[in-house]
Amino acid sequence: MAMEYTTLGSTDLKISRIGLGTWQFSEAWGVTRYEDAKAIIAKAIEVGINFFDTAMVYGRGMSEEFLGRALRELGVKRDEVVIATKIPGEFLHPDDVPRAVERSLRRLGVESVDLMQIHWPPCWHNFPTCGYMRALERLVELGKIDYLGLSDYPVELAEAARYCLARHDIEVIQVRYNLVERAAEEAHLPYAEENNFTLLAWSPLAKGAILGKYTLEDVQKIEDLRSRDPLFHPDNYKQLLGFAAKLREVAEKYGKTPAQVALNWLITASSVVVPIPGAKRPEQVEDNAGAVGWRLRYEDWRLLDEESKKLRITYVTW
Questions:
Q1: Of the listed 5, 34, 58, 132, which one is catalytic?
Q2: In a domain, 83, yes or no
Q3: How many other CB atoms are found less than 10 A from the CB of residue 30?
């Protein structure tokens, strides 16, 4: 299937309907060999993905370095891809903002970045919102950032951040959103639709928890960051195994994989949603790209909607 494209927020910047998240290029996920990362990025380019989401904190710069180096070595022209990165809350003192952005651009090997998102509010440092928003807006004016976005911001604080901007608005909100974690639908999704923002859905496959790849016994042996994710706690995961069976049934009807159906469910729900799944192997990139070029029929979309709403996920696991 050919890749589908949309535009970033209210801009004319063309982005693929499925992006590539690059958190996996870090110790957290274990893709720490550059050649492995390059192969993943090469496959993304091959299947038509042109939107790459990274962050300063992923591997303490490793992800940005790998992404920038791979794009250069693959001969990808700068205007053929859209690079999004994120600045963490602890870097948001107005004096630190330009320093952090400069280091990010250096790691990426670019003169400017297409999208700079705030990764999370500065909840431990209490930097006033208008101070850092104006510092970021100044870098837009100076040509170091093209567009701004907010990641993991409640709508109320997003409104406060937008109030601080004088000449530019945000174009993106990024939130955790997948078939079984749907809090984004209460406020963030309608907010994005109302304002013509792109909603970047991180963890759109719930770190794989909804795919049913592991037995209940196997999931308790996982030792990477998923071991601390509530979805992989036995109380939640045993529910998800039943949901995964329904997901497989729908996938078989369409001749698709469960991951493709789960991603398609998100993009069928709203034209503003752009999932950014990660991948630890090139084959996973290709699988994810197959989520576009078709749509779930209404009855199947509703079936998964209803099955999802039957789940009672708890985040109190200790």
A1: 58
A2: yes
A3: 13
